[in-house]
Amino acid sequence: MKYYDVHGKRLPIPSFFQVYNYGGGNGDKDREIVYSEFTGNTPALINYYYINNRYPHLFQSRMFDDLSGYSKVGDLYNDIRRKLIDQKGEIYSGYKSREYDFNCKVFLLDSGAFNIVKYIAESVDYDISRFKEALIGHMRDYYDFADRLKFDIVVGFDLGGKYTEKDNEKGNKRLRDLLAGIDAEKVNDILLEETVRYLSSKGSYYPHVLAPVHGATPEDYAACTERILALEKAYSCEFWGFALGGIASYRQVDDSWYGDIDFRKTGKSGTIETVTPARASMIVRKRAGSRPIHALGCGGYPNIAMNYFCGATSFDAASPVRRVGDGSLESTRLVFDPCPHRKVGFSRYFVGGIDMDGTMREEPCTYVRLNEVDDNMSLCGCPACKEAGSIRNIKKLYSMKSSDNEANYFSRQLMGLHAVNQHRKLCEVIADYASFYDFCKAYPNTLNTRLKEIYRQL
């Protein structure tokens, strides 16, 4: 398997980045840090918006109030983990914590900039000209922050291509008017050039920087890539690689990305979402040479192989651990009932994929409600599965919520971190194949058979 050397740490090609959103929520997000040993040195994506308490948000952690004592982000997360375990007691009593050092990970910082926009807009009283000036100042602060905490890689600051409205933004007319008055393409272009100026003025800058690529259509995406290359030449300053933005959801892009694909043989479910990331990867790879390409938010299991063989070298997704949060309190009382009479939401377990010994599993690759997973189904052999022992054990821990809340959290982490390991394992396996067709021949499951038909049309 090939690697990038990132500050003395190996970043496999391809890589799946585990998304750590501590500061963006409690509960499972805390425990994901507590049990980090189950995913080892899997690289990590951190959201600047969540770990910088300059920007008020719902789940702010006091750990981020003052970061002046830290020179490495890994040390910060080591301290967070210790406090969650030793001071808050957020660990299952039936599990003995193991030594773990976050400094083994490659850390990638993303800005979450479109969430920051709300704060900036309000701070300038929704004045567009002042907003643009303030935005550049916040951009510089972001890069300084990444350098100060020695993040290994940083995604260039931009307006972002995906925005989840969580704070009733639709009801804020002044914010809506400001956003409507912004030409996002032009603002991103300004931020891109300001980034190049910032980097060219630095004698040394620790993080490797990924240039963000955006575009409403494939043609716009190509033009944005060319603009980046032209800026590099003009300023004699080269980005380490590229970050593909705004392509994680096919529902948010122009249908020119996938309108020419015939889905009659494959169906759209589970395949249509793979087209835009794959096509964007091809567009940038054609122009970027051999440099790294990270597909932001595009690390869902069906996307990984397509992304890689179309040019991406890394990807991230929050879905593996997010699916464990689908369960309700009522589901913990019904987890041993495969057919509960009333509608209830269960945490979901990832089935299918590839065992740690490289064997393809028989089950279709999907997330299944925990109560519907067979107690006797074999586990994949990853560290989380070895700790779990069996599906029945996971269900037992899951059912204990009313008497032992930490047991329930532990079960959910065993499920979520198993899913992370499955995404990582897929990356390891596809690296051994010269083409997507060779990989599909070696692993001829239903998913790959359908994706091969999509890939043929790209």
What is the molecular shape?
A: globular
Q: What is the N-to-C order of secondary-structure elements (H for helix, E for strand)?
A: EEEHEHHEHHEHHEHEHEHEHHEEHHHHH
SS field, number of helical segments: 17
Strand content: 5-15%
CATH architecture classification of the largest domain: Alpha-Beta Barrel
Spatial gap, N to C terminus: 26 Å
Largest sheet: 8 strands, parallel, barrel
Radius of gyration: 22 Å
Low-confidence stretches: none
Highest CATH level, the class of the largest domain: Alpha Beta
pLDDT averaged residue by residue: 94
Q: What's the helical proportion of residues? A: 40-55%
| CATH domain fold name of the largest domain | TIM Barrel
Which structural category fits the helices and strands? Answer: alpha/beta
Write down the oligomeric state: single chain
Secondary structure layout:
Blueprint (H helix, E strand, L loop, with lengths): L1 E5 L2 E5 L1 E6 L7 H7 L9 E4 H4 L21 H14 L20 E4 L2 H11 L4 H21 L4 E3 L17 H8 L3 H17 L7 E6 L4 H18 L5 E4 L27 H17 L4 E3 L5 H9 L4 E4 L1 H4 L6 H5 L14 E4 L14 E4 L13 H6 L2 H9 L5 H26 L5 H7 L3 H12 L1
Parallel strand pairs: 3-4, 3-10, 4-5, 5-6, 6-7, 7-8, 8-9, 9-10
Antiparallel strand pairs: 1-2, 11-12
Helix pairs in contact: 1-3, 4-5, 5-7, 7-8, 8-9, 9-10, 10-15, 14-15
